[in-house]
Amino acid sequence: MPQPDLADLDAFAAVARQRSFRGAAALRAVSPSTLSEAVARLEERLGVRLLNRTTRSVTPTEAGTRLLERLTPALGEVAAAVDALNSFRDSPTGTLRLNVPTGIARLILPPIAIRFLKAHPGIALEVVAEDTFIDVLAAGFDAGIRYDEKLEQDMIAVPIGPRVQRFVTAASPAYLAAHGRPTHPKNLLDHACIRHRFVSGTVRIWEFERDGEIVKVNPSGPLTASTIDLEIAAAIEGLGVVNGFEEYLKPALASGALEPVLEDWWQSFSGPFLYYPSRRLMPAPLRAFVDFIKAM
Fold first, then answer.
1. How far is residue 193's CA from residue 76's CA, in Å, rounded to a whole number?
2. Enclosing H/E stretch for 254
3. What is the mean pLDDT of residues 23-49?
């Protein structure tokens, strides 16, 4: 039996981890058909089906699962061996793949990423922004950025971005003139509130804190959206009270389009962390990024 091509094995592992040809192709910057041809070629050489394919899903067969279990550490060693060549270069090269929440991708990562790429022209950065919590390693990423309550076990965490953030609450002057200003978080139950729904379908509960007292409310209102831009626009037009990251609402607050509400109840929380697995041979692009973050 002819030996399978290493590139085909790598293509299979990428698809099997993502459970999707399209998802794996997006990470690899290739077409889904390229990966499909590679997997088909591998299955033909091995004489066994590795993936079950339907119009809605891609899942490893029992043989595929066993192959993936053995391939994952082996491919990691191959990547580490190639990456070791970076020590012979003046600056590291390669690709750094990060998985981050959409808020961090918009508010925190841009200036950091730009400075990093200018300092390391040999590194290409791939960022996937999504709010679902995933196993970043199984999905083919080098590292992720999350908040501390979402960190996975057996991970090293490095602070990145602001160390303290806040959820703030605001409403337009017109809304407050017409409906009054709440003085306690529970008053929000009698107000029109603009809510945020995560991609998972969960609607975020509003949480407030003052002098050690925590109050959680689940208000209702005319709009629930998954985009903060729409939520802020609706609040500016007087449709209700909005609650979100301070960084998102700061421009509208600064211009007077929105006014702070329940300011002494605004809750602070720890800023995000870059997290990555503890391992002896760290890829050079990731090592460069970690060193860059620590030096900021």
1. 49
2. helix 246-255
3. 85
